[in-house]
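Quick one:
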Amino acid sequence: MLTLGGLQLDLTDPLTLAIAGAVLLLAVVLLLTLRAAARAGRMAEPLLREVSWMADRVQSLSDGQERLAGGLHHVSETTAISQSSMLKLMEQRLADVQRQMTEALHGTSTRTARSLGELHQRLETIDKAQANIEKLSGNVLSLQDILSNKQTRGAFGEIQLNDIVQKALPSDAYTMQATLSNGRRADCLIHLPKPPGPIVVDAKFPLEAYEALRRAETPQQAAEAQRLLRGSVRAHIKAISEKYILEGETADGALMFLPSEAVYAELHANFPDVVREGFAAKVWIVSPTTCMATLNTMRAVLKDARMREQAGAIRRELALLYGDVERLGTRVENLDRHFGQAAKDIEEIKISTEKATRRARRLDNFDFEEIAAPGVAPLIGPRVAE
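Output:
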């Protein structure tokens, strides 16, 4: 008999044996199942790891999808903001371009109006210039009328010569319409010192032959005009030499003034023989330009002569100036000596001051209550009893 938990079993009973066998078989089957499960568990570990890895990957993919969704949303928002900013910027740029175009059009219209106004002013200036040209043409005709008359031409030359001389020389260096000892009246007499002495400038020039040369249309007329011009100039050179070069009274030469640069250029270009004859006769031909240069040279000569005249006075002034400089040097030396003595006195005063300061400092640091040193009399005598 076998007792289990208050239950008695008969081991000889077939039913008990069957039950016991069934239980034993169940235990064996259970044991075998557990062993198989253990082997299956060990075999399933790689699979479980793979499944876990796949689960992690799935989770990562899910997280990446979420992040991708967030990124897409952010990109969408950023794109929307960028598009909005771009639209605003384009609208602003378009407004700026429109404003610039408006300003440019306004400026262009303003400049166009200004240009039209300036053009109108220039047209008015041109009209005035045209009127002045017409007036000048009339004046030129009047000038031609003046030059066609011998007396008026001489007066015109004298006026021009007078203007040049006034600009180049001081008023006391020349005389207009001066009368010489032979009774001849010179257009201008320049008072140069001797040598060379006073020199005459004549302004009466024969212009008829030059006008004939300009009007010549054929070679025969030109040759005849040249002959007349050469003869008239030679005659005028001779007349100036005889009338205005006086020995002992005037310079050994005279000037023939041509009031026209064109005539002067014509003579030097095509009549060099006449110019050389003038040099030989000591009659020098000058134009307004060369006359101004010659007068400036004469002005330098006059200035040099006046400097020589004043040389004595200049020497006296220099002597006085030298004396003043010597006295100034002496006074500067005296002043320097006084300054040196004053500096020496100040230095001695400084030395005395330093000595007095040192003595006062020693007295200030001296203890009067100390016993006087041997051989030194006390500063304060013994007290006398009252």
